[in-house]
Amino acid sequence: MRRPAASALPAPETGERRDWQTIRSLIPFIWAYKLRVSLALSCLLAAKGANVTVPITFKHLIDALSLTTPQAFVVVPAAVLLAYGVLRFSTSLFTELREILFARVTQQAVREITLRLFRHLHALSLRFHLERQTGGLTRDIERGTRSIGSLISYTLYSILPTLVEIGLVMSILLVQYDAVFALITLATLTVYIVFTVRVTNWRTTLRRQANELDSAANARAIDSLINFETVKYFNNEEYEARRYDQELGKWTAAQIRNQYSLSGLNIGQAAIIAVGVTAMMWQAASRVANGTMTIGDIVLVNAFMIQLYIPLNFLGVIYRELRQALTDIERMFGLMHENREIADAPDALTLLPGPASLRFDQVGFAYDAKRPILFDVDFEVAAGRTVAIVGHSGSGKSTLARLLYRFYDVQTGAIRVNGHDLRQLTQDSLRAAIGIVPQDTVLFNDTLRYNIQYGRPSASREEVEAAARAAQLTEFIRRLPDGYDTRVGERGLKLSGGEKQRVAIARALLKNPAILIFDEATSALDSKTEKAIQAQIELAATGRTALVIAHRLSTVMNADEIIVLDQGRIVERGKHGELLARAGAYSQMWLLQQQEENEQSALG
Q1: Cα–Cα distances in angstroms (integers) from residue 201 to residues 193, 321, 488, in the given order
Q2: Are residues 241 and 93 in the same domain?
Q3: Counting C-beta atoms within 10 Å of the first and last residue's C-beta, which end of the chain has fewer, N or C?
């Protein structure tokens, strides 16, 4: 099957046209199943044709029973009854065949759109994810995913069948009976649709407000639960409950207004239908009384009105649900068209495997143009060498790692790997060459084996265990009852800081990258654990190009070069001994940290 083109979902615009664009945007996903769609539409026409013929057959049955001859009383009704039964069965048969044929189309379209959104979200920049609340984002995706199926279903085999049936009934009334019947039907339909559209459009605003408040309340709850320990530390359970209740109160008020408007819509629709049915039956009864119509005719008109009443009422429900689905899906389609801040150049090169050198060439960068972070940062890391970046908090150390991963692009200068500007390399090949042990190691809520193997999902069992041995995890895992199958909990909370860091090292080693980044990898650990982890870091860096970002200077003494950052600028560089001899910024940091360690040892 050929997948729909990526341009199938145009960017939403303001105004009413956005709804029709949303519907049209689904066509490429559905038309990928041309044969199934064609067969389903054929079944739709057959089902509606049989359904409209049923009242006509019933009319002939009533007229036949009105006759008194034995032949008409026995033979004709039998034939008509047989036709009536066949038509009834045909209606159900073709309807179910249509559902069977179209089920795969609907589900595959939902799957394709959802997968495309998932990939797009992973392709968006780090800035986008830092600025969005996870709770609200997941709620938008959940509602949008659910509404895609509803949108396809309502549009293609609920609204269309209803319109086909209404068209057939109108044609029969216009051809076989007085035009007044068709005019009453048309007037009822027009008033009903205009009323439904206008009221539903007004209700859409209420629905959108309710959705926004729902997302805000959900984001508040998830944010609080993610920070469960912090809430407990400060005994703020009631404070969080009050804040959540405030959001729930706003959402409740919006939902109540939404329900009131729905009830008003339903009452208005019922009144319009009642007036239309009464007018039709009045005209039919008058003509039966003056002999221009038979009893069978009035039964036919009544049956048509019943058949029209049900789909017409259903059309109102469907339109309301369709607009609500469009409202729900609006945010999700907005995510589909969120601009990718970082994208591969059209002629991007693939970084070849093997040793890699790094060069930060007069790099300047700012997350916000009003507050620059880095100023003319210029240094080189030769292949197989280790360079350490040190400095006070906020000096821009961790920003270097984010720029190297190309989570952001530099504003001035360039970062080069093997002489290639990162912006001229494919992101996949660049990130495949880099491994990182972050300051805050976040693990998946899965097993130890899964989290280690995440460094290279195709790795064998033996390779995973070899990486664990290299990270000094074997003894720890051996003591666990479930060994490698031990689940680590949400974000790895069942493990200590040192254990999580070892998992991060094992994961990075399993990836076997040419470049290793250690971003404050030991800053959150105690001195004993830090020394144990530091030995593993130095071992892991052997033979690789390593960038060690650190606050504790004791962890970078053996680096080939140490670069001191201060407020985004390089103020010193050299080896550990050289920097101490200069008695500059590095020496002051060293003396201060030594003093703090001595004080802690004395207190201990």
Answers
A1: 12, 12, 49
A2: yes
A3: C
Supply the CATH number for residue 569's domain: 3.40.50.300
| Digit-coded pLDDT (tens) for 218-241 | 888 888 888 888 888 788 889 889
Q: What is the 3-state secondary structure (H, E, C) of 377-416?
A: EEEEECCCCEEEEEECCCCCHHHHHHHHCCCCCCCEEEEE
Confidence of residue 529 (pLDDT cuts 50, 70, 90): low
**Quick one: pLDDT band at residue 21, thresholds 50, 70, 90?**
confident
What is the token pair recorded at 196?
């439904």
Q: For the ranges 95-109, 193-207, 315-329, 533-547, which has the lowest average pLDDT?
A: 315-329
Q: How do beta strands 412-417 and 386-391 pair?
A: unpaired
CA dihedral of residues 98, 115, 2, 147 (deg, nearest 10): 30
* Mean model confidence pLDDT for the chain: 81
Report the alpha-carbon distance of residue 389 to residue 375 in Å, rounded.
15
What percent of the chain is modeled with pLDDT above 90?
13
| Cα–Cα distance, 11 to 395 (Å, whole number) | 39
Residues 51 and 191 in one domain: yes
Residues 264 and 312 in one domain: yes
Please tell me the number of Cα atoms within 13 Å of 72 on its side-chain side. 10
Could you tell me which of 515, 544, 546 has the C-alpha nearest to residue 433?
515
pLDDT of 13: 40
Residue 6 resides in a domain = no
Q: Is the pLDDT of residue 15 over 60?
A: no
Strand order in the sheet with 358-365: 374-381, 358-365, 412-417, 420-421
Phi, psi of 389 (to 5 degrees): -115, 120
Counted domains in the chain: 3
Q: Indicate yes or no: pTM above 0.85.
A: no
pLDDT tens per residue, range 391-419:
888 888 888 988 998 888 999 999 999 99
pLDDT at 527: 67
Residue 167 shares a structural domain with residue 280: yes
Q: Exposed, middle or buried, 292 (CB in 10 Å: 0-12/13-18/19+)?
A: exposed
The number of beta carbons lying within 10 Å of the beta carbon of residue 1 is: 8
d(CA 133, CA 218): 10
The torsion angles phi and psi of 195, rounded to 5 degrees, stand at -60, -45
Residue 469: CB atoms within 10 Å: 14
